Amino acid sequence: MNLLSYGLLGLLARHESSGYDLMLRIQPFWQAKHSQIYPLLARMEKNGLLSSRWIQQSDKPDKKIYMITDKGTHALQQWTHESVSPPVTRDEMSLRLFCLWLADKGSAIRMFEERKRHFNHRIAHLEDYLGTIPAENLSFGSQAFGDYILVQKGLLNAKAGLDWCNMVLKMLAGDVQEQQNPFMLKN
């Protein structure tokens, strides 16, 4: 079992889904393609971690719906007891920033403006989603609790990213007074 397998089981523990729907639902957490998801679903079904049924559709091809089994739920519960791996950063912008000294200032500004738009869109989306989480059941053990703290983490990260973009754009505009080390954060 790899991390994507556990992620798919986690989604199926909430409600049954087609492989395509699983691919869409996992994207906020983990980048995965059809070519990764469908073989894992077949393997997990073969190993008894999930089951499936076919739904006939008149206007589209029939679709296969997957459900987690008791064995799958047990595997997912066991996984929650394991140590968490350190976070992995895989961001194209970080690689580009490593080479930023080769870019012209206009390209750098565009890159940071694009990232600002991304963070603003993400913040708006997460704040909208936050409004859908029932506030009356934010106790540990409820799905709402996990959703709430995950959305809060996303909001904090997006707001920090937005602040960072604004800081760099000010530096690019020449508004930074501290020429010795403009990266020192003030307390």
UniProtKB/TrEMBL annotation:
Q: Which domain of life is it from?
A: Bacteria
Q: Which InterPro entries match?
A: Tscrpt_reg_PadR_C (IPR018309), Tscrpt_reg_PadR_N (IPR005149), WH-like_DNA-bd_sf (IPR036388), WH_DNA-bd_sf (IPR036390)
Stored Pfam families: PadR (PF03551), Vir_act_alpha_C (PF10400)
Q: Which residues form the Transcription regulator PadR N-terminal domain?
A: 8-77
Q: Which residues form the Transcription regulator PadR C-terminal domain?
A: 89-172
Specify the protein name: PadR family transcriptional regulator
Instruction: Give the organism the record lists.
Output: Paenibacillus enshidis
What is this organism's lineage? Answer: Bacteria, Bacillati, Bacillota, Bacilli, Bacillales
